[in-house]
Amino acid sequence: MVAVRWMAGLAGVVMICTACSPSETPGAPRPTPTTVSPVTSSPTPAATTPGPLSVAEYQQVLGRVEATVRRQVAGLMAAQTVTAANAGRTKVGLVLAQQKTVLEAVQPPPRLAAVHADALRTLSGFIGGTLENAVATGCTVLDPPAKFLYSIKLDVYQAISLGDDTIGKRTAFGRKLLPAPPVPPPDRRGVNGTVVQRLVRGGSGGVRVTNVGATDALVVVLSGKKVQGSVYVRARSKASLLGLRGAILISIRTGRDWDAAGRGFTADCEETAFTEPLASGYVWSFKVGEDG
Fold first, then answer.
1. What does the pLDDT look like over 16-30, one tens digit per residue?
2. d(Cα 144, Cα 82) in Å, to the nearest integer?
């Protein structure tokens, strides 16, 4: 017969074996008594919603966001190659998204709610993927690497700085968000009277051009669609192209930043053309840029 004694304790219930079962192996170790603690339930802490930050706390958050963005943009501004600039552009886009998330997670002081909205708008500036140096439509030619590098930097700079005007009126945020803007390379100009192309010689025809406009021009002379030659005419200057043959058509291209290698303007290029050919054997004089 197995004798069992039950004892109740405050800490739990203890079961003590005072006799072994007949089937127990003699000399075997006895099991250690087990104490079972009663299960008690504790109240779940109520969820708390953080209140708005103080002005000082909020300014600290804005300062950290500003410094993080500025550091990344400064790295992009220091890029020396198009590849490095495009990589930096991608990183800036990621940092802007991350810092916008950081700012969205805080509750600003009530009186700085408008500042908060302005800051979020600035961090929402769109920065897409990498930029490609593609030929624009019309007579514009491909940017040289130095100018395209500047274009990548300027695109990012402008995308971030869109909301700064309203921010500056209400808080210091934005005043140190960006480093100095990228410096544009100077516009290049051709030498007045330079013959850019010369494919036909020995004719009795020609053109004398007076550029009365404020923009440099390239005057291209054609026979049908075939170029005979072209001459560069600076603003407020005169130039000639002689030795032309047959009836000629005239195309006038004006713009900024002359690229000699590409034989064209890389910015603001506009083209006008004579609708009727000029008779052969004459030296024709005309003005360009009369509306400039």
1. 333 444 444 444 333
2. 11
